[in-house]
Amino acid sequence: DGSHPDPISQINAVNEVLANISGVEDIPQIMALNKSDMMSDAARERFSSLYSDAVIVSAFSGENLQILRNRLEELLPSPRVRVDVTLPYEFGGLLSKVRENGVVEKAEYVDSGVELIAWVGPSLAAKLMKVAL
After folding, report:
1. Angle, to 10 degrees, between the axis of helix 7-19 and the axis of helix 41-50?
2. Does one domain contain both 67 and 25?
3. Helical H runs in 39-84?
4. Are residues 63 and 88 located together in one domain of the fold?
5. How many distinct structural domains can be found in the chain?
6. Global pTM?
7. pLDDT value at position 23?
8. 8, 32, 94, 97: least buried by Cβ within 10 Å?
9. Residues 36, 57: Cα–Cα separation, whole Å
């Protein structure tokens, strides 16, 4: 809370609570300080120097809300789509992307290409469907 006289103590209190929750260390975190429209320039500078990865936001002015949304989207898992396609051999690069970014249930090499069943993100699924036999 950027309007609080000592936001650092609030951060420390939250971190103490989180430290007592089992498994929380495996969950990605984004530090966001809200009510930036109520912060002094000195408080902003101090906070930014202590927490360089934090996002200072204001729902009132809209400051940095898109940056916060982008950070959240980066951390959220992509929705998965099941694809069942035969991928021509000349698109082997797409198979590599599936292996890197998806979950392969079946990859069987046949004369016409690779019979593939996999779970991938929507954009990769669209690319696979476009080139599939």
Report:
1. 30
2. yes
3. 41-50, 65-75
4. no
5. 2
6. 0.56
7. 86
8. 8
9. 5
Q: Can you give the pLDDT of all 133 residues of the chain as single tens digits?
A: 888 888 889 999 999 999 999 888 888 899 999 999 999 898 889 889 999 999 999 999 999 999 999 999 888 877 789 999 999 999 999 999 999 888 999 999 999 999 999 999 888 999 999 999 9
For 52-117, give the DSSP string.
TT-EE--TTT-TTHHHHHHHHHHHSPPPPEEEEEEE-GGGHHHHHHHHHHSEEEEEEEETTEEEEE
Q: List the one residue out of 33, 34, 32 whose CA is nearest residue 60.
A: 34
The one-character DSSP state at 44 is H
Asked, for residue 2, whether it belongs to a domain, the answer is no
Single-letter amino acid code for the residue at 24 = V
Q: Are residues 85 and 71 in the same domain?
A: no
- Same domain for 55 and 110: no
Supply 83's token pair.
């694809």
The predicted structure's pLDDT at residue 111: 96
- Between the alpha carbon of residue 5 and those of residues 22, 43, 64, the distances in Å are 31, 9, 22
Domain boundary among 75, 102, 117: 75
Rg (CA), the chain: 23
Chosen domain end from 75, 98, 122 = 75
